[in-house]
Amino acid sequence: MKRDGLPFKNTQDGITSIFQKLYDHYGPQRWWPAESPFEVIVGAILTQNTAWANVEKAICNLKQRGLLDPVLLNGLEPEKIAEHIKPSGYYNIKTKRLKSFLNFLFKRFSGSLDKMFKEELETLREGLLNISGIGEETADSILLYAGGYPIFVVDAYTKRVFSRHGFFKSDVSYLDCQRLFMDNLSADAGLFNEYHALIVMVGKDFCKKKEPVCRECPLNVFQ
DNA sequence: CACCAGGCAAGTA
DNA sequence: TACTTGCATGGT
């Protein structure tokens, strides 16, 4: 880690102590905000490049109609799905993405999430990435937050916060960024769960896209 | 009013 | 491989 004047002995110390500072500041986040693994999956697809508040409206529409279930949603006309998830934006493409996932779930696991989550981590990750509409972040979110697998989720905030603090360049690849965390933390799903959630919190509060650097924040142990 | 949000795939060169 | 563009609503 070539970062002068920082209080970390090495990268591992940095990654570990930043987690501790965030946890001390924000407390446990207990993600994902959902009542079931399927709700996590739907939310993970709907939140692609979309504010969570809008996703909540869409999830609420589905939940109120009792449609937050693989069988029922799979039997629904695309036009009806699109109508319900409209508040989350990109509703036509997201309808296709939900259908693509459901098609995968029914063809490979006869519609059973329990069966799906019996797969090995790497096998299931490959399978999810093969679904049109599910990229690395969505796949890892499903694996970690719905399946409880020990995989670290990288998002725009992760790259922004940690590149601004010198851990890598802002155009770092998903896998390189993910490797930084997974190589320097124990493979603990509970830890990865909290860490990603805390990064999103601190990112929302102090690391906006517009500003050239992070404002002073709990992460600013760098001065 | 402009800009952004817990991405992804398809198109182009 | 490396860029660019479309997708769309709702909050600040």
Summarize the structure.
With 223 residues, this protein is mainly alpha-helical. Helices cover 59% and strands 0% of the residues. The chain has helices spanning 11-26, 37-46, 52-64, 70-74, 78-85, 91-109, 113-116, 121-129, 136-146, 156-164, 174-182, 189-206.
Which short descriptors sum up this protein?
single chain; 223 residues; mainly alpha; Endonuclease Iii, domain 2; Endonuclease III, domain 1; 2 domains; 12 helices; globular; DNA-binding
CATH architecture label of the largest domain: Orthogonal Bundle
Low-confidence stretches: none
Please provide the ordered H/E string of secondary-structure elements. Answer: HHHHHHHHHHHH
| CATH superfamily heading of the largest domain | Hypothetical protein, domain 2
User: How many E-type strands?
Assistant: 0
Average of per-residue pLDDT values: 94
Terminal residue distance: 17 Å
Helix content: 55-70%
Largest sheet: none
Q: Strand content of the residues, in percent?
A: under 5%
- Structural class by SSE content: mainly alpha
Identify the overall geometry.
Answer: globular
Give an overview in words:
By secondary structure, the chain is an all-alpha fold. The chain folds into two domains: 11-29 and 152-222, Helix-hairpin-Helix base-excision DNA repair enzymes (C-terminal) (Endonuclease Iii, domain 2), CATH 1.10.1670.10; 37-146, Endonuclease III, domain 1 (Orthogonal Bundle), CATH 1.10.340. It is built from twelve helices and no strands. The protein has helices spanning 11-26, 37-46, 52-64, 70-74, 78-85, 91-109, 113-116, 121-129, 136-146, 156-164, 174-182, 189-206. The mean pLDDT is 94. The structure holds a DNA duplex (13 and 12 nucleotides).
